[in-house]
Amino acid sequence: MATSEQRGTVKVLVRNFPVDALAAPGDIDARIGGVVADSFRLAPAEVREWRILSRSIDSRRGRPQLIYSLLFEADAAAAERAGLAVATADELAALAGPELELPADSTLRHPLVVGTGPAGIFAALALALAGTRPVILDRGSDVERRYADYMAFLRSRELDEESNLLIGEGGAGTFSDGKLYTGTRDPRAAFVLDAFIEAGAPEEIRYQKRPHIGSDYLRVVAGNLRRRIEALGGEFRFGSHVVAPLIRNGCCRGVVISGGERIEAPVTVIAPGLGGRSLTAALEKAGVGCVFKSFQIGCRIEHPQEFIDRKQYHLTGSRPAALGAAEYHMVSRRLAGVPQVSSFCMCPGGEILNATAWRGCSITNGMSCFARSGEFANGCLIVTVPPERFGSLQAAREAIGDLERRIFCAGGGDYTLPAQDAAAFLAGRAGLAQKRSSAAVGIVPGRLDRLVPEFLASGLRAALMQFDRNVPGFIRYGKLVGVETCVSSPIRFLRDPETLASTVPGLYLGGEGVGCAGGIMSAAVDGLKLARAILGRHSGV
Q1: Which of 227, 224, 223, 268 is closest to 246 using CA atoms?
Q2: Percent of the chain topping pLDDT 90
Q3: How far is CA 88 from each of CA 53, 71, 77, 92, rounded to the nearest angstrom?
Q4: Which of 46, 237, 361, 477 qualifies as a cystine partner to 75, CB 3.0-4.6 A?
Q5: Which letter does DSSP use for residue 85 in this model?
Q6: Is 360 in contact with 408 (CB distance < 8 Å)?
Q7: What string of H, E and C letters represents the secondary structure of 288-301?
Q8: Distance of CA 114 to the CA centre of its chain
Q9: Structural domains of the chain, with CATH
């Protein structure tokens, strides 16, 4: 077969190509190949194909710019005339990324996976691709039933502790923004993106600098991932509440289900998520090695999205069609005796949720659909809590539970969320002048300045003052809503650095709930790592 060079074409990389976002059409992504070709005076016949490698927004200098990098296959002579450099073999190999290598001769059959969040589902997918026919358990419902249960909760305010925004197929991330940006550079991330797109996620997540799927797509994706695993021989059992690992002679032989049923398996993967508090406590009680670690809690803050757009994009009019809803990421300066605050899980054009899994408790989270077209923006302002602040894991758990119950009561006892204007919070007075909110459960005036622990309150006060200097109006237009306690786990289970096994043979633990990941992408990658480690031990690889 002739190479592209032999056919008279070459592949070229165009990096950091700027487009004026205020002048660009709404469908600029679909047109950008032609725009770039025109800028280099390439005729349509001289360009064979192109694809976007990355797209970001740069508004640091005032007028927002869209910054693209693209890969072209173009006529060799035309590319030389335009001064375009031919992409090297190394550059093309780096763009292709490594394949996810899975042993094809695994002797393992019917491993057990507990949890269908990102870690559990990607562990199950990798195991299914290797022909092991995994059995996947989840205490909650499939995603279709789960969504119906959530809508029923909004109408009745009767919480189903087995099917809610934390418990059920897809985990907590199914009802979120579906953010995929992460600090991990693990090459397995490309496999995760491909799997999401194959399951129905938007193609744009391949090249966006801060990709997100959106809750509307996530429900579809979760169901399609399940069906893919089933087609590969996997079996799902929803409504299976795992209460403890099944340990005999020092080895994990499966799990115990509520009611006493035992399900045995040659290998068990448990990825309980942040909603699996009772299961992580059961693992600890069973003697699985773990440590008490730092964790985060915070408060949601909500602003009109139009305000965030204006400030972040330096706009004087309405947001142009080529720009999505603006985001922010802020970190406060370190001050003596005051915790540092950072923004987390910012949801442009989104909705504030009461994401509790426990009756009589209220816990905020944020959600947005792919279009991010809502009236409000919300984000969580979090502080890191060192373990020595509470002294013991049990004391930390009790303090978190007490805070969640007090927030529930402050909202009126029906899962409505207490809220307070940021200015009133700073002044130490009651006040909720801005009563419109994205929260489907509603908001009522509440004294969050008195409800939250002092270490969080002091951090928030200092951060609000600093953030308002950076973004004038951040205090004036902001209101704090509820308290967010399911940010990260206060416990980390120990794993062998080589085999990734827990301290109990036959038991593998992964994802956010066991302290081994933080976010959808890192949890999914962690699940793939676990599966690869397990398959390696059962194939001689």
Answers
A1: 268
A2: 86
A3: 16, 12, 17, 6
A4: 46
A5: P
A6: yes
A7: CCEEECCEEEEEEE
A8: 19
A9: 9-96 (3.30.70), 112-291+493-537 (3.50.50.60), 295-484 (no CATH)
Q: Which amino acid appears at position 375 of this protein? A: E
Distance CA 540, CA 452 (A): 53
Q: Are 430 and 469 in contact (CB under 8 A)?
A: no
Identify the DSSP state of 46: G
Least confident of 141-145, 228-232, 299-303, 319-323: 319-323
Q: What is the DSSP letter of 307?
A: H
Question: Which H or E run includes 464?
Answer: helix 454-470
What does the alpha-carbon distance between residue 13 and residue 70 come to, in Å, rounded to a whole number?
A: 6
Pick from 400, 302, 396: nearest CA to 356: 400
Number of H helices, E strands in the chain: 14, 21
Taking the CA atoms of 306, 307, 312 and 315 in sequence, report the sign of the dihedral they define: positive
Give the whole-angstrom CA distance, residue 99 versus residue 80.
Answer: 32
Report which residue type is found at 352.
Answer: I
Strand (E) or helix (H) holding 231: helix 215-231
Mean pLDDT across 105-133:
95
Helix (H) or strand (E) holding 75: strand 65-75
Distance CA 2, CA 410 (A): 71
State the DSSP string of 415-426: SPEEEEEHHHHH
Query: Average pLDDT over the chain, rounded to whole?
Result: 94
Torsion of CA 282, 288, 290, 292, to 10 degrees: 30
Torsion of CA 63, 64, 69, 75, to 10 degrees: -60
Bigger pLDDT: 101 or 140? 140
Centre a 10 Å sphere on the Cβ of residue 233 and count the other Cβ atoms it contains. Answer: 14
How are the residues of the chain apportioned to helix, strand and coil, as percentages rounded to the nearest 5? 35, 25, 45
Rounded to whole angstroms, what are the CA distances from 392 to 62, 491, 511, 512? 49, 11, 22, 20
Per-residue pLDDT reduced to its tens digit, 409-455: 999 999 999 999 999 999 999 999 988 999 999 999 999 999 999 99
Instruction: Give the span between the Cα atoms of 295 and 305, in whole angstroms.
Output: 29
- Can you name the residues that pair with 58 across neighbouring β-strands? 65
